[in-house]
Amino acid sequence: MIEATLRLQRRDFRLDVALAFPAHGITALVGPSGCGKTTVLRALAGLERASGRIAWGAEVWQDDATGCFVPTHRRPLGYVIQEAALFPHLDVRGNLHYGRQRSDGESGRISLDAVVDLLGIGHLQSRRTATLSGGERQRVAIARALATGPRLLLMDEPLAALDAARKAEILPYLERLHRELALPVVYVTHAMDEAARLADHLVLMRDGQVEAAGPLAELMARTDLPLSRQDDAGVVIEAQVVEHDRPHGMTRIGFHGTSLWVGEAAAAPPGERVRARVLARDVSVTRQRPGETSILNVLPVVLESVQRERTTALLRLRVGHDASEHDWTLLARITSRSFDTLDLQPGDALHAQIKGVALM
Predict the structure, then answer these.
(1) Residue-wise pLDDT tens for the chain (360 aa)?
(2) Which CATH class is domain 2-220?
(3) Which end of the chain offers a freer environment for a tag, N or C, measured as fewer CB atoms within 10 Å?
């Protein structure tokens, strides 16, 4: 585990957090601007001096009680910020070799060639950084951070400065790093779509404090958190590819004894693990199983709970009419009028409908 108890007081801001998250996978710090996400990241790096304690298992980086404080250059970490901050007087190869020179030789667990291959920047080696696109620059920045041989990678909104096209370009590379490197990442973002696509563990922050923390899928399915009140509320599903329907551009994924048709995952062969996100706004419910319908995904569900809002109702649905049949949850956002017309009550057996074209 990585554990951090941090306190910091400024004139108009107070940070007071106690964090504990796995030293593997991607942990996303999510929250509105000004909530303290970057301050936490900078404190982990030793760039911001908050009071408290930071430990990686038995290895202590800061402990005010004993006077311990390991400076940034002695912490085995890489740091990526919004702007790539590459050295303009060096080409790509020179930037990467600068990063490699900072490796202590013992922590370098990945070769420079492997880093270049993972991030698809082999053809850029002789290019000056001023000639790179935004997405290329950020991939080189990530590669330079990895070249130092870190045991922890800190990323502060690395996609925030990119437009939608460049963001779509770089996300698959981040997913590839996630799959192929046994390297823990702390990833700061205010974009829930990035966290849902990349993270394993989620820390929700607001006003300098932690609102909730835990596995991504668990927190996404909770209706008592601010996430549930946002337009992109929904659940994340870890599944396996079952088959492709190439003529229709669809893929069937399986998990927990059931399956869904989703938009085609062209690069994923049958058997490969994939992640799908089901937004609450894309789920509707019916009391009777529909007959002829264009909706590809119809699942038996039980209404577990309801969160009423002024004009909508958020339903938490347990998939399967038999409590032992499945063990996963859907969220559905419907209008208050629909909720009252159907006269829904917790415990009702229903059917959930999910458009295949809504899922990717």
Answers:
(1) 889 999 999 888 999 999 998 888 899 999 888 889 999 999 999 998 999 999 988 889 999 999 999 999 888 888 988 777 888 888 888 888 887 877 665 545 677 888 888 888 888 888 888 888 888 888 888 888 888 888 889 999 988 888 888 888 888 888 888 888 888 999 999 888 889 889 999 999 999 999 999 999 889 888 888 877 877 788 988 889 999 998 888 899 998 888 899 887 666 788 888 888 899 999 999 999 888 888 989 999 999 999 988 899 999 999 876 655 556 889 999 999 999 999 999 999 999 999 887 776
(2) alpha beta
(3) N
- 3-state secondary structure at position 205: strand
Tell me the two tokens of residue 168.
């779509």
Q: Which residues, 6 or more positions from 306, have their beta carbon under 8 angstroms from its beta carbon?
A: 313, 314, 315, 316, 339, 344, 346
Is-contact 50 42, C-beta < 8 A?
Answer: no
Encode burial over 188-214: b for 16+ CB neighbours within 10 A, e otherwise: bbbebebbbbbbbbbbbbeebebbbbe
> Are 301 and 285 contacting, i.e. CB atoms less than 8 angstroms apart?
yes
How far is it, in rounded angstroms, from Cα 154 to Cα 147? Answer: 14
DSSP-derived letter for residue 268 is: -
Beta bridge partners of 8: 15
Task: Among 2.40.50.100, 3.30.470.10, 2.40.170.20, 3.40.50.150, name the CATH number for the domain at 234-358.
Answer: 2.40.50.100
| Gap between the Cα atoms of 134 and 143, Å rounded | 14
Residue spans of beta strands (DSSP E) within 75-192: 77-80, 152-156, 185-189
User: How does DSSP classify residue 61?
Assistant: E
